[in-house]
Amino acid sequence: MLAMNYRGPHRVRADYDMPYPEILHPQDAIVKVLRSCICGSDLHLYHGLVPDTRVGSTFGHEFIGEIVDVGSAIQNLKTGDRVMVPFNIACGKCAFCRQELYGNCHESNPGATAVGGIFGYSHTAGGYNGGQAEYVRVPYADVGPVVIPEWMHADDAVLLTDVVPTGYQAAEMGGIQPGDTVVVFGAGPIGIMAAKCSWLFGAGRVIIIDHIDYRLEFAEKYAQCEAFNFNSIGDPVVFLKTITDSLGADVCIDAVGCEAAGNAVNTLTGRRMLLQGGSTTALHWAINGVKKGGIVSIVGVYGPIDSLIPIGNVVNKGITIRANQASVKRLLPRLIEHVESGVLDPKGLITHKVPLEEVSDAYHIFSSKLDNCIKAVLIPPS
Ligand code: NAD
Ligand code: ZN
Q1: Among the atoms of ligand 1, which is closest to the Cα of residue 211?
Q2: Which end of the chain is more exposed for a tag (fewer CB within 10 A), N or C?
Q3: In this prediction, does ipTM exceed 0.95?
């Protein structure tokens, strides 16, 4: 079958002779992919920042599709169902799943101490192949997948598998109180959605910070927030103090994560610099720019192990840090309602629809932030 094939850092290609997935367990289903996305999280893999990312693997944790085969134990799904598949692979039964911490499932990534299984996200997340393919195996298929309502557009559905729940959970973890000033670092799909969702929790002011002007302009319109280029405001921490009566922001959200070598910006000088691992600049700004007693919510992903943070300031300022992979299945019922009522318009983030055959170009465009790209969707041949 046709699928994305990882060949090493900055090298992915479309391959026509990748093996078809098979039912390996009675709780598996096979999904024929209708749409999959490239996520900022895929860029950490693409940039070679995530350990144990194996050549020959297929990425893609954001996808929807049609059930074409089910294992003997599956009760909730049948062939022909069109489903959205949360990026977390969750058993539904372990101690963490029972608390709806589906991103921390103990069974889907045995032996790991942190993250549960994730589709197409290296052997540190269980070694599962992902959905940037014609077909994909979905383990524990009675637990995660949700049948797409008849009225829902496929482009909205695919963004409900990660972007919308992650942006929403970023705002939720921020513990936003009515009238709060919320500052979001990163104007990618996740940051823009976090900014949009911050209003749903009663924010009084929402600010987004990035250094790519087209993304800032997009965010300003889509999330009705203020947007600033960190190259134009001097030290972002000083800037945030200036606009908050010297107090700092009530809530800071890190929707950046580690930035690849060469993309990183030095915290002190604001200049670009080369790093071996990944930059933690945005997280520094979030911790230093939040008020005393404030909350820093992190959804940005940190793949490398050498991600140092200013932990002294966390202690001295009495900051609460909340962070996790989004628990997609927990949030889907309320997010589906928000899409139905028109409160959220996920598909408005999609700027590029690319045939799966051109996956290599799509990675290049999304990674290099070319052609005003916000979110790229891959379409397999029908
Ligand atoms: P993206 O690459 O499209 O966007 C990241 C943005 O951050 C870019 O626009 C970039 O210019 C900007 N940026 C870089 N350095 C910055 C800095 N110092 N300050 C402010 N902005 C800066 O990625 P995305 O798809 O929006 O994802 C964002 C992050 O969220 C990634 O780290 C991704 O791995 C993570 N993520 C986490 C979850 C989760 O469940 N926790 C789910 C999806 C994505
Ligand atoms: Zn994602």
Answers
A1: 11
A2: C
A3: yes
Instruction: Check pocket membership of 265 for ligand 1, CB cut-off 6 A.
Output: yes
Sequence letter at residue 347: K
Residue 166 Cβ < 6 Å to ligand 1 = yes
Q: Out of 190, 237, 302, give the residue to mutate to test ligand 1, the one with the largest number of ligand atoms within 8 Å of its CB.
A: 190
Residues 188, 51, 128, 4, Cα dihedral to 10°: 60
AA identity, residue 373: C
* Atom number of ligand 1 nearest to Cα 192: 26
Q: Give the pLDDT band of residue 128 (cuts 50, 70, 90).
A: very high
Q: Please measure the distance between the N-terminal and C-terminal CA atoms of the chain and give it in whole angstroms.
A: 12
- Of 305, 323, 341, the residue at which a domain comes to its end is 323
- Could you give the maximum distance between any two Cα atoms of the chain, in Å? 62
Q: Are residues 146 and 112 in the same domain?
A: yes
Is there a single domain that holds both residue 140 and residue 172?
Answer: no
Structural domain harbouring 59: 3-162+327-379
For 359, left (φ over 0), alpha (ψ -120 to 50), or beta? alpha
Does 210 sit in the ligand 1 pocket, CB within 6 Å? yes
Please tell me whether residues 25 and 147 are part of one structural domain: yes
Residue 288: CB within 6 Å of ligand 1? Answer: no
Residues with Cβ < 8 Å from 11, sequence gap 6 or more? none
Please name which of 162, 183, 304 lies closest in space to residue 237, comparing C-alpha atoms: 183
pLDDT of residue 260: 62
